[in-house]
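We now fix the convention by which a protein and its fold are recorded. The integers have meaning only within a learned vocabulary of local backbone shapes. A record is reproduced here so that you can trace the correspondence yourselves:
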Amino acid sequence: MLKLMKYELRKTAFSKLVLLVITAVAEIAFLIGVFWKKDNILAMGIIFLVMCTIFGVIYIGIESVNVLHRDLNTKQSYMLFLTPKSSYQILGAKILENGISIIMAGAFFAALAAIDVTVATLYIGGLKEMINLVSSFMEVNWSVTFTPAEAAFYFFGLLASWIVFIVNADLSVILSASVLAGKKGSGIAGFLIFLVISSVIGKLLDLIPVLKSMELTFVLYIAASFAIAAVLYVISGWIMEKKLSV
């Protein structure tokens, strides 16, 4: 499994390197803006860091779906399916590598944001004052209150949701390349199935009760998300094992 994960990582290593370089450039711009008090450069650095965070995590997931689509619909990775590995192992390596990449990217950007906020707020009174300022602004303007712990759970809850989204997309790709292969409109049918499953998943996650402890609520949400992703993985692996012809 580890060798398969390394193989999957090599397929997407270049794009991750590009993302890291762009992030480094944005971080340098941010630090120049902070230490040299260049407001325009600071603003640009912040904008690009936010864009790297959002679009970087999104792209990591979408790229994995594209890689799976190419593996199943072209000859470029046919050797992968000739190895003595089951479909569960091949798909599991893809999902694990992508899930770990998404979580690590999220943790990296969260840590970088924490460091940057700490550095920036040294100039306006400290980190606690900055958090209070942001919290007060959101409460007054949007009636939203949060603690740093809740903000972290919101962030990683979104990452868990994104992983479920990607595993569901993988399932639709597998259906298009196996059960629906050769049929007219197989791509559209796979996409419609994806939308239906996404709707069902959304309704299931909405059933999670809101507890007095928001942190516990988010733990349940994240656990439920990973449980759903596991179910989708088992279904996808079974389809690949029984129905796929590469």
